[in-house]
Amino acid sequence: MNKDQVKGTAEKIKGKINEAVGRATDNPQRELKGDVQQAAGEARKNYGDLKEAAKDMTKRRH
């Protein structure tokens, strides 16, 4: 697991929390912030997954 995977997962969790708090407090801006954080976290995690897969592929070739 690399740092992009870890940070992406953490960002997704923060986003879920912000979304839930925004929904509970009827704060659409905070809810939207949570949605954006989740999307950014997912993108970073996917980037980390790709880096990890590329590293695994180069290990197999050697």
Automatic annotation (TrEMBL):
Sequence ranges of Basic and acidic residues compositional bias? 1-17, 42-62
Annotated spans, Disordered: 1-62
The record's listing under InterPro entries reads: CsbD, YjbJ_sf
Q: Where is each CsbD-like domain found?
A: 4-56
The residue ranges crossing the membrane are none
Q: Which Pfam families match?
A: CsbD
Q: Which family does it belong to?
A: Belongs to the UPF0337 (CsbD) family.
The entry's protein name is: Uncharacterized protein YjbJ (UPF0337 family)
